[in-house]
């Protein structure tokens, strides 16, 4: 029997505000900050303290909800999620559930089968947890001795940081679609400036819920959730494995257990962690210390008006306006800084075909950025410089190979491409009269080779071409040289 997967994603995005969700503690980079440096009575869960909602976090969440075309609730509620969190001192999490900030959105994704619209069930605000470090000490015991002590250390720098949870409907069916959705959502969050998308630091965490069912069946199977994936590769691999695992269980007539699973990247398998809770197990009830969150229509209108051009709209515009293909448009619009760079380069060189600039940007410049391990915002080659370089190549002022070496030097030093060309004497000779003289000289100085060519050794034309290029110091335009050499050799044949 054939099976199909039904997949929904829960994405947790840390909102990059200055302070935490319900207190004034600074939001630190928990991967480098000393432990427990941003902790106050509120995020430490001390008795008698009161949380206060971070307005900027609400603004960021509203921006995301509007970009996802959600229905924004004028009134939403914070609730207590009662679950044992060893890294949240209160013992519960402040979140939203039945009355979230926004519902019923959608996100367009690009797949090998074309564009698909994935429904977004809800967008809601909550607080992040702290971080546990598990320690095993042997107290100096020698090999073969039993004993030692295990304990855990808690760092509360991250506890209480604003977290946005974005829950999709189970509209995804393949690992490719899952990855495309996650990448599109990350791109959107970065365009909006609310999340860096740094998955290695845990600022964006993805949790797929996966079930399988007989192909064509309307019923849902028993689902498993894979927790806290922090790379697209891990996401795609874990989903593929879990689909295979569940399908094999059903083929063997064995049940799929509803559970939370982890991903073992080294082994390439998912592993059970705990039984999967239902919503009732969390005993949600309204947070008594926070009033309802009220979003006036004016606030929604202002948020919608402030949205930038979003990745999907820019993707379609780049195809329509610049004649780019799907691949080029997708690469150039995935990051807002790259799209801005591309359009700035186009503005600086209106006579250069957009495809040429796209090729140099996504090919040569991206390669240098990757080698250096930096983003385009740190490039020492600015849009105007790239435009000038591509323009020189397009006008045959320098060769393609010379252009690549000029770009490397400009990237390394920050020099203008024109200056590098002048310093190295790389400007290409394209003057027809000058090249005609070079060809004439080579033919005059190599009578034996010319005679052999005229006698039928056609391969000598390549040798003669090389002699012209050598005589020009490698600076002659190869197209013009070839045309002139062919013309003069044909004259000799007559």
Topology record:
Blueprint: E1 3-14, H1 55-67, E2 71-72, E3 75-76, E4 79-81, E5 93-95, E6 102-111, E7 114-127, E8 131-137, E9 149-155, E10 162-168, H2 175-192, E11 204-214, E12 224-226, H3 232-251, E13 259-264, E14 269-275, E15 285-286, E16 293-294, H4 297-305, H5 311-322, H6 326-333, H7 336-348, H8 354-372, H9 383-394, H10 400-413, H11 417-424, H12 432-445, H13 447-454, H14 460-471, H15 478-493
Parallel strand pairs: 12-13
Antiparallel strand pairs: 1-10, 1-11, 2-6, 3-16, 4-5, 4-15, 6-7, 7-10, 8-9, 11-12, 13-14
Helix pairs in contact: 2-3, 5-6, 7-9, 8-9, 9-10, 12-14, 12-15, 14-15
- Name the poorly predicted regions: none
Termini Cα gap: 76 Å
Number of domains: 3
- Largest β-sheet summary: 9 strands, mixed
How many DSSP H or I helices? 15
Oligomeric assembly: single chain
* Beta-strand fraction estimate: 15-25%
User: Averaged pLDDT, please?
Assistant: 92
| Lateral arrangement of strands in the main beta sheet | 2-6-7-10-1-11-12-13-14
In words, what does this structure look like?
- The protein is α+β, with helices and mostly antiparallel strands.
- The protein folds into 3 domains: 3-128 and 161-303, no CATH class; 309-424, no CATH class; 432-493, Arc Repressor Mutant, subunit A.
- It has 15 helices and 16 strands.
- A 9-stranded mixed sheet has the order 2-6-7-10-1-11-12-13-14.
- The chain starts with a strand and ends with a helix.
- The model has no long low-confidence stretch (mean pLDDT 92).
